[in-house]
Every structure is written in structure tokens, then in C-alpha cells.
Amino acid sequence: MYDIFKTSIATQISALSGVSAEIVEPAVGVSNNMANGDLTLTVSRLRMKDNPTQIAKTLAEQWKADDMVTGAEAAGPYINFRINRTVLTRSVLQAVHATGSKYGWTNEGAGKRVIVEFSSPNIAKPFHAGHLRSTIIGNFIYKLHKAHGWDAISMNYLGDWGTQYGLLALGFERFGTEEELVADPIKHLFDVYVKVSAAAKEEAEHIEAMDADAAAAAGPTIQDQARAYFKSMEDGDESALALWQRFRTLSIEKYKQIYARLGVHFDVYSGESQVGEGMSRAIQMLTDTGLLIEHEGAKLVDLTEHKLGKALMQKSDGTTLYLTRDIGAAIERYEKYNFDKHIYVVSSQQDHHLKQLFKTVELLGLPYADRFEHVNYGLVNGMSTRRGTVVLLEDVLHESKEKMHDVMRANEAKYNDVVNPEHIADVLGMSAIVIQDMAARRIKNYTFDWGRILNFEGDTGPYLQYAHARLCSLERKAHVKVNPDADVTLLTEEVTCDIINQISLYPDILAASIKSLEPCTVVQYILKLSHSISSAWETIKVCGEADDVAEARLLMYWSARTVIGNALTLLGLEPVEA
């Protein structure tokens, strides 16, 4: 929103200094301290030969005030500018009113396509709390690209292939029931997997204690049978594939219910099983380029000169591995989607794997090798529920809802006014988890703290939702309506100027976020905006004021509410209105 002022400054500074306006304008930024000025020019960035401090002094003295920029003052090697606050206020509030939910959006990515792959649980293993980070960070990145005009595709690349499915099939024969599978496929398949894994471990320990002849006579182990079963899947055995397909379909339907609670939608449900000819083509390309070498019957790519070790591509029994399938998937996706960028949202524990993938694709000479990006994140410590050590994501979501419901019930008067308290408790619980997760840089590990996140005060999700709901309530109770043509010259208080400044920065926040892909940039911004509103709440009133004053203030508060709601939506949260 400061662009018109930056352009005005660049035009006059260019005329005074002889430096191109294209060089001047990027050197003008929003001031860190508004007490010194609204915008600041960093003179050293003009690349002039003389001393920057002296240049700043000379240019400030030569500056001529106009309707846009009312004054200039040198401060060492900087020039601080005062802008016409009325012009800024009017342009900001009218822009928010005109664009609403799309305030700050751009067409920067118009004509470009991005695939954002995130969440990606393994069907044979629990959909655990660790998947939360990939899910909510990936959803943010997906939404952020759409806000910048990209043709964005959200993709869930399920772990739905591999030896563990042979183990799961054997386990289902022994421990599974049809009723439990239909009732809760994710939990039941996990329970089955735990039981058959324990049986396989016990068997292995028993065989290890035998002498060689007895062990040889024992016949195929559970693990041997699992490998054989998976090999039959790879060879296209219809009955084996039918059971696997059933597990996959039922699991996806359950995933969709959990994702709906998180406000997450996937355009594509893919998976390792969906990789077709791309995998065999990848092996052939690796062979043709001389990258693939054999070692004890297995096939690998030696990446040691790139400090990435040796990457196994195919086991000695001919079965494929994650890396092989990832290369095949990359080839097939580019051919199908012709993407300009492909983002993998995966934890930092997979840094090495992704580096091996990207380096192998690069060595294959694929022309789109530079379009891949890994967005990583740290680990969550201390996330637990009453149910035990294996923390299923659904359990965490349920417990956050119940804990928040308990907090809400403690204030009986307000609780009785809440429409659909069950749903509001769910949204607030979700907000508590998401905002704690996104409050710091994503690469940082953090400790999950129930006590802190459920607080309606401080920098928490419930606090942000309360700020939004309170502004919605103000609008409902006001004796005037939101008027985009309100007399904004009446917004002269320091705290209202601060709120306008914060609202004006939202487009810049979106611009910074698309570069860093850091949700914390948005979280910290709306926390600061909410704090500014809280500071104004007791003195900058709407109810009981003259109509013209009330209209101006309501427009400001409505705009702030719109921006907070937009930001919460971008973070994957439903803004609470009551």
C-alpha cells in the first residue's frame, strides 16, 4: 500500500540525484520506528560516489513537499519521509473494502503451476501427531501460492506400497476383522500391524536361538512370507492387489474426515503405488547414463563424491525402494502436470533422502531438475494424550477440542450465549494447536504445551480467535454501518495510525511469505495487529460516538477484522465470529 508513496519519492530523488528511479524505489522501505518517519531511504543503496551521510543531508534539504510526501529529514546515511496520512488511510481502508477476502493478493504466479506435496501418511502405520506439521505447513504453502496467482495443486503422496503391505496382509489374516476394518480402518490396520510386527520379532528371536539345522528346517518366516507377498503385488497378483486396494480406499475415506477437521483439501491423492512406467524408465535412464552400478545383486547410485553416500535403487530380489519410486514419480508428474515448481513438505529427518533425490534427478540431466524444492521443518516434542505412547493425530484433535470445551464451560454466562459450542470448541482447539506450531520458524523443534496453548491471553490461537470474534461483535452492535466513504480524517489518534499502518503492511507480509514460505511471518503479523487493536479498544470506541466518528472507526475495525480473518484462513483456520 506504500507503493504510490515510494514511487513519488523515487521520482523526486531521481530528479535531484541523477540516479535512476528503478534503483531508488527498491531502496525505500517502511520505517522500523514510525516516530522518525513513515518511509526510509537507505542512501548507500543508490551507489553514489560521495559520502552517504552528506548525500542524505543534501537531498533532504533539497526535498520539496507535495500532496503525497509532506517532509524529509536526514538521519545519518538515511532519509526519513513523512507521508500524507489521510491519503494512506483512505487508500488502505478503501482497498480492503474493495477486495475483501483477496486483499493483498497478487497475480505474481499467473500462468505458472506448482505442486505442493504434503502430509503423506503411511497406510500401514499410524496417522500420528507427527504428520500434523507437514499437513498444516503444506496447506499454508498451497494457499499462499493460490493467493499469489499460481495454479496450485495440493497432493497427498501416500505411503501405500512396500514390504510392509505384505506384512499387513499376513497380519490381517491372523488378527483382522471385517467389522473393525470398516468401523475405523486406520486404527484397526495399525493395531494389526503392531501385532504382526510383534509376532515377527518374537519369531526372529526364537529362530536366532536355534542351531543352524533347526533354523533351516523351520521354513519361511513371517518376514519371508511378507516379502513374497509384496513381490506378488509387484508382479500383479489380482487377489493380493484387491486386498491392498481395499485397505487403501477405506483409509483414504477416513483420512478425508480428519483433513476436513483441519480445513485441508487435496486436489490429488497419489501414492507410491501410483508410480507406473516412470519407475522402470528411471532404472533404464540410470543404466543408460552409467549412474547405476551393481553391488551384491542390488543396484545403486554412488553419490559419495557429492557427500551423499550410496543411494540404493533396487534390492537384490528385484523390489524397488522409496528413492526409485520418487524418481519415477517426479518424471511422471512433470509429464502430466508440466509444473514450474514442485515443493516437498517433509521433515528435516528426510533432508538426506531429498538431497539424494534432487542430485540423482540432476545427474540424469532432466531439464526440470532445478524446479524441485524441499521445505523442511523440525520436530514436536512432548505431544501426548491420555491414551498412551503412540499418539494418533485424531486423538490429539479430539483432546484439544475437549480441553477447550472445558475452558469454555468455566465461564457459564458466555458459554450460554455461544451458538454450537461443540463446533466452536473444535475450531478453538484446532487454532490452539496450529498457532503454537506456526509461531516460530518451522525448522525449530518445539515442545508441545497444553497449558500454554489453551490460554485466551498471550500469543495463542484462542487469543487470535477472540480478537476476531470481538470485532465481529462490535460490527453487529454498532449503530452505524460499514461505510467505505467514511471521513477518515477523523482517525487522528496515535493508536489508530498504528492500526492503519499494520493493515497497510498485509500485502508486504504476503510478499515476504511467498519468498520464505514461513507461516510464522503471518502469525507474528496478526498477533501484532491484534495487540494494536487491544490497545485501542478502551479509548477508540464506536458505540455512543457521533455518527461520523463511529463510521470512521468502524471502517478501521472492520478492515482489521477482515485482515485477521484472511490471515487465519490462509493459516488453514476457520475464523470464529461469535
Characterise this structure.
With about 575 residues, this protein is of the alpha/beta class. The protein is built from 23 helices and 14 strands. Strand 1 (about 30) and strand 2 (about 40) form a beta hairpin. The longest helix is centred in the middle third of the chain and has 24 residues, at about 185-210. The radius of gyration is 29 Å and the shape is globular.
Q: Work out the strand percent.
A: 5-15%
Characterize the biggest β-sheet.
Answer: 5 strands, parallel
- The rounded distance between the terminal residues' Cα atoms is 30 Å
Shape: globular
Judged by helices, strands and strand pairing, the structural class is alpha/beta
Number of strands: 14
Biggest sheet strand line-up: 7-6-5-11-12
Continuous helix count: 23
What is the helical fraction, as a range of percent?
40-55%
What Rg, in angstroms, do the CA atoms define?
29 Å
Low-confidence stretches: none
Indicate the mean pLDDT.
Answer: 91
